[in-house]
From TrEMBL:
GO terms for biological process: DNA repair; translesion synthesis. Keywords: DNA synthesis, Transferase. This is Putative DNA polymerase iota. The keyword Cytoplasm does not apply. Belongs to the DNA polymerase type-Y family. PROSITE patterns: UMUC (PS50173). It comes from Daphnia magna. GO terms for molecular function: damaged DNA binding; DNA-directed DNA polymerase activity. The keyword DNA damage does not apply.
Length: 528
DNA sequence: ATGGGTCCT
DNA sequence: AGGACCC
């Protein structure tokens, strides 16, 4: 069972730094260049070559590179953008329909390279292509595109070749997007999601960059400020600043208990790992949306008549999306932004269960049939509105949002005999509860098998694989999984990379019945 | 901010 | 239901 690479890698797992299975995965992050602007230029090619800004309300939310060359920046107000660049052409980007459509086309192109595609917003995708990496007869280490900070040393785990191959796949993806959709993009290639995303931004636009594993600390510390790490937002940043932590290095070296005090154990560990470039989170296949909604912000309104009008408009927009989706939601949420007398605004929401009448298999199309339905929904929305406004005497509302959720989950309760087991009958949980899959076989499956499956079953299988693979599972929280035989108090005080290393070894031991422990763990064992 | 989304508490 | 994060 452990044919090729199993034994020898495990037996010579000596270096604390570049060891065995550290960089198993190959992750590609694809980021479309100035997304909204590109879509508008494709829809209206006469805009090409001219400075173009996309506006929402009184903001330029993004702009093309011609506009950037003239000083326009993202999130400028319309006013200051036009002062900077009087020749700026503006397109309204409040209706996301066209952007959603192109986003789905992009997703489908990427899916043709790997089933493991995760969307982040409308213009970014992570793709896990680990299973596409081949053992090549000859050493092939030509990287397509840029390499981040070329360095001579080669990681012992063999990831250099894998990442080089990943860069070739990324190049093919980007060529495909360009040729089929006319879309230019950037790509980052690395062994985890964090680093793939970060390295992709080092050469923009329309370029790609590969991070070799030996440069990962260099990349992450080049960000300088913790706030620049995806996953560290404004709230965490405020707390870090209260601790005087304003560089990545300080975040790396802060005692974990200090971070835990301020942020809780889970977040503390997560962000300290991020500060070392460690990110074990999986690429999660993006399935159908869990919520479908629409919002509109506006100058303050004060009457229920106006609220009703706004809600009718929003409801029409969101019902169109829900109808297109085809599923029947059973939850309806209203969110309201109230302008508080004091000056700043507050969002509140109320949710309720509904019976959604139109949709799926019904014979009614967009007809008078669902007028009654809309009226019912309007009634429940106004009831929710009252719950929020309630006793307020002179309220002012500056935003309304409607969102439908609670869609049926495909994986309903008893898949017992019918689905996965039919295709993989022998080795599911029943026969040998504690026997893990051989490491060499994990993550490598014959895709032709997948192609044969009915689409719904295929999705189920892929999700199942993702959920079962221990190799790339997010780290379990903290001290509770201190390795066996190690003093938890000692464990807790160790630097995060060492803890990571110990936990990785612990996981490997559980997976395969390794006999010799020529590794870090033994040094931390209590004498027995 | 804008108009969306996700997940965690 | 709110709050954090992402774009």
């Amino acid at each position: 069972m452990e044919e090729e690479n199993g034994d020898q890698e495990l037996l010579f797992n000596t270096s604390a730094d570049q060891s065995t299975k550290k960089h198993e995965r190959v992750i590609i992050h694809i980021d479309i260049d100035c997304y909204y602007a590109q879509v508008e230029m494709i829809l209206n090619p006469s805009l090409c070559g001219k400075p173009l800004g996309i506006k929402q309300k009184n903001l330029v939310v993004t702009c093309n590179y011609e506009a950037r060359a003239l000083g326009v920046e993202k999130l400028m107000t319309i006013k200051s953008a036009l002062e900077k660049c009087p020749s700026l052409i503006l397109a309204n980007g409040e209706d996301l329909k066209n952007y959603r459509e192109m986003s789905e086309k992009i997703y489908h192109v990427l899916q043709s390279y790997s089933p493991f595609v995760e969307k982040l917003g409308l213009d970014e995708n992570f793709v896990d292509v680990t299973h596409k990496i081949m053992k090549l007869p000859e050493v092939q280490q030509v990287v397509s595109g840029h390499t981040f900070q070329d360095s001579d040393d080669i990681c012992a785990c063999g990831c250099t070749e894998r990442l080089a191959q990943g860069s070739l796949i990324a190049q093919k993806m980007r060529d495909h997007l360009r040729n089929e959709l006319g879309i230019t993009s950037c790509a980052g290639i690395a062994f985890n999601k964090l680093l793939a995303k970060l390295v992709g931004t080092t050469h923009k636009p329309n370029q790609q960059t590969t991070l070799l594993s030996t440069s990962s600390l260099s990349l992450i510390t080049s960000l300088k400020h913790p706030r620049n790490i995806p996953g560290i937002g404004s709230a965490i940043n405020r707390k870090l600043e209260a601790l005087g932590i304003d560089t990545i290095e300080k975040l790396q070296s802060t005692e974990i208990f200090k971070l835990t005090e301020a942020l809780g154990a889970k977040t503390a560990n997560q962000i300290q790992q991020l500060s070392f470039g460690i990110d074990n989170s999986r690429v999660k296949i993006t399935d159908r949306p869990k919520s479908i909604g629409a919002e509109d912000g506006f100058i303050p309104i004060r009457s229920e008549v106006e609220v009703r009008k706004k809600l009718m408009c929003l409801l029409d927009r969101v019902l169109e999306l829900v109808e297109k989706d085809g599923r029947k939601p059973n939850q309806l949420k209203l969110t309201v932004r109230k302008l508080h007398p004091s000056s700043h605004s507050v969002r509140e929401s109320r949710q309720t269960t509904i019976e959604y009448a139109t949709g799926t298999g019904s014979s009614t199309n967009q007809g008078p049939g669902d007028e009654k339905h809309k009226i019912k929904l309007m009634t429940t929305l106004m009831n929710l509105f009252e719950k929020i406004i309630g006793c307020d005497v002179s309220w002012q509302v500056t935003l309304l949002g409607i969102s439908f959720s609670g869609y049926p989950s495909k994986n309903s309760e008893s898949p017992a005999e019918n689905s996965i087991n039919k295709y993989f009958p022998v080795k599911t949980s029943s026969s040998r509860p504690d026997e893990p899959l051989p490491p060499a076989k994990r993550g490598r499956f014959d895709e032709s098998v997948l192609q044969e499956l009915p689409p719904d079953i295929r999705q189920e299988v892929l999700e199942d694989m993702q959920n079962q693979l221990p190799s790339s599972d997010p780290q379990k929280p903290t001290d509770s999984n201190c390795p066996k035989g190690v003093d938890p108090l000692v464990f807790r005080e160790l630097p995060v990379e060492i803890r990571e290393e110990l936990l990785a070894e612990e996981r490997m031991k559980k997976q395969s019945n390794i006999k010799k422990s020529n590794n870090l763990l033994q040094y931390f064992r209590k004498a027995s």
